[in-house]
Specification:
Layout: E1 10-15, H1 25-35, E2 39-42, H2 75-85, E3 90-93, E4 96-97, H3 103-117, E5 121-126, H4 131-136, H5 144-158, E6 164-167, E7 172-176, E8 189-194, H6 199-207, E9 210-213, H7 218-234, E10 243-247, H8 256-264, E11 269-274, H9 279-293
Parallel strand pairs: 1-2, 1-11, 2-3, 3-5, 4-5, 5-8, 8-9, 9-10, 10-11
Antiparallel strand pairs: 6-7
Helix pairs in contact: 1-2, 1-9, 2-3, 3-5, 6-7
Amino acid sequence: MARQTKQGLNVGVFQVMAGLDCADPAVVAKRAEDLGFSSYWVPEHTVIPQGSADVYPGKQPGESPPEYLFKMPDPLIALARASATTRSIGLGTGVSLIPERNPLLTAKEVASIDHYSGGRMMLGIGAGWNEPECRVMGGDFEHRWSQTKEAIAVMKKLWSGEYVEHHGKYYDFPPVICLPRPARRPNPLVLLGSIGSPLVFKRTVEWGDGWLPFSVDLKEIADGRAELTRLARAAGRDPASIDVTVFAPTGFFRKAADLVEVAKTGANGLVLWLNGDSQDEVLAELDDIAATVF
């Protein structure tokens, strides 16, 4: 059963290399659940066009691209594997690159995981930073958030379990039905990732369920929560209905004092980046983190 910190935070973990040659998602997610972590997250990069990783925003100038960019399995297959060995832990994409996906197929896959897991799927989404990757996968990079918004609208229609049709700029189809329905109604949580874009708050209030800031700037997170509250009230939406889960870069927020400061921002949750390479390293790391945060 998930445990909260003394500050009331839900704490999850992010496994950037969830491959069988590293640490099996089925094993890692099960250990995380047993220790009381609330969620388990995996990333997405389907392909990396040659040379495109050189502009990865997570590296310093002059550094080589990190190896993990090239070793990510499909996130939904990894989460399906994790769902088979767990019973309560949330299963999240951190993040799924929506302009690079067919929304009809993605709706089916997400609903299937949510159905089998009993409503535990959390669709963390982003529009991506890698222009060549986006283009080769069929995305409209210059308007990728417009495409993302339409794709999520398509998925929400399909998750209704009824015959639906759609006639938009990016997607156009006659009446179709897509089953099974997700276990969570009306839809799995849709959480918007961001790296510094102020538009994320408007988008989250309009059509999202929460915000996933990838940040260590506590003022930025607190200000974001305040802006979400302001926009939600203006739109007639309950601010408490909007989740804020901080996605921590590698190595951050590992001490008890850090959790106190994160909780002060108004965030509901925190996701910690697992650094281990081998399965033994990752499992030992989980044990160490749990001993600190709970």
